[in-house]
């Protein structure tokens, strides 16, 4: 037996990136009977907690839905296979590019925790100068490569155009010879 649950999720943050941000997540559960149940969660604030952001709120909404699905599964008398569908208007939270990165990060985190511990800490940008500089250097290199490729592409286009003009000239000369001959 399969138990199907659909969640529509959303997360938001007011005053994102400013003082006193507040964040919330919501998961609307739509069970097989068609009944709707609303689940919400506040993004807690505190000294040892990360500040609420829109990104954190969107991912919290997905986590909320997953937790509710697991709780629902535990409440069922039989242990059916769960089929959970999560819908979100956040390309960040759902998008394949981010989803694979999130899965990879979680997998790596899990591997570290099997061997010890891992800690995540926000630091002000001023204290992150070395990593910031290294990242910007890499970005500069990538932009320089792109500019070089663009320049090479423009040179190739110019070369192709000159080649086409030469072929056109050769055809013209051949026609002139036919007229003369």
UniProtKB/TrEMBL annotation:
Highest taxon, organism lineage: Eukaryota
Residues covered by the RNase H type-1 domain: 1-148
One Pfam family matching this protein: RNase_H
Region (Disordered), start-end ranges: 140-181
InterPro entries cross-referenced by the UniProt entry: RNase_H-like_dom_plant, RNaseH-like_sf, RNaseH_domain, RNaseH_sf
GO molecular function per UniProt: nucleic acid binding; RNA-DNA hybrid ribonuclease activity
Family matches, as SUPFAM superfamilies: Ribonuclease H-like
Matches recorded under Gene3D superfamilies: Ribonuclease H-like superfamily/Ribonuclease H
Protein name: RNase H type-1 domain-containing protein
Protein's organism: Pseudovirgaria hyperparasitica
């Amino acid at each position: 037996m399969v138990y199907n649950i659909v969640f529509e999720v959303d997360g938001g943050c007011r005053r994102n990136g400013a003082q006193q941000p507040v964040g919330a997540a919501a998961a609307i559960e739509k069970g097989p009977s068609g009944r709707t149940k609303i689940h919400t969660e506040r993004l807690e604030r505190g000294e040892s907690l990360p500040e609420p952001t829109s990104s954190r709120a969107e991912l919290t909404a997905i986590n909320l839905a997953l937790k509710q699905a697991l709780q629902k599964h535990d409440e069922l008398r039989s242990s059916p296979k769960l089929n959970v569908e999560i819908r979100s208007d956040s390309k960040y939270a759902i998008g394949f590019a981010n989803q694979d990165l999130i899965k990879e990060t979680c997998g790596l985190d899990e591997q570290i925790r099997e061997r010890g511990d891992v800690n995540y800490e926000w630091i002000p940008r001023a204290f992150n100068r070395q990593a910031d500089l290294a990242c910007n250097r890499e970005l500069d290199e990538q932009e320089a490569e792109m500019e070089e490729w663009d320049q090479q592409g423009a040179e190739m286009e110019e070369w192709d155009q000159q080649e086409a003009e030469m072929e056109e000239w050769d055809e013209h000369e051949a026609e002139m010879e036919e007229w003369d001959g």
